[in-house]
Amino acid sequence: AQSVTQLDSHVSVSEGTPVLLRCNYSSSYSPSLFWYVQHPNKGLQLLLKYTSAATLVKGINGFEAEFKKSETSFHLTKPSAHMSDAAEYFCVVTLPQSSKLIFGAGTRLAVHP
Amino acid sequence: DGGITQSPKYLFRKEGQNVTLSCEQNLNHDAMYWYRQDPGQGLRLIYYSQIVNDFQKGDIAEGYSVSREKKESFPLTVTSAQKNPTAFYLCASSTTGGVNQPQHFGDGTRLSIL
Fold it and tell me: pLDDT tens-digit profile of A14-32?
């Protein structure tokens, strides 16, 4: 069965320092993986997606993620946090040959001056 | 600009009342979805539709109903049978049946009980 585990419910960083949001997945097949961001009272915006091409995926707003099959991980990183990055982040996996998405519980990122 | 429009932004329901949440998209997407979001939880799928006049139950369909009479529209009715309807509801769409595709989201409707 497919599942997603976001290892931290809250992450707090200082502005200008690196961001690491951790995600492990479980899948019987080669998965498609996504990271979404949600600002308060808003919908979800796609940050990046992995669909079995390059294992290092670059997204919007300076974010990137690396697919590591041996570790079943898809961690999201950014070299330098901005105040505007404060939001909730969701790691998502698709069921094979399906339009259904499986969401992690989310990681809330706080960025301090 | 193409996108997904949800309305209203805030909605209040009285006991025993059915309410309908609107979702319209102009992205020409085939697939549409409804999710429920509760605090501190990820999104849970209520219903989805991959083509007009067809839809399937998601993981938490009890107490909800949908229709898909037009490609652009996928309204969700929260019925009186849904005993705990207070939540943030998100509508999404994706291309060509949505297999392995990312979904595009609206800005949500927040439903509360009066």
Answer: 999 999 999 999 877 778 8
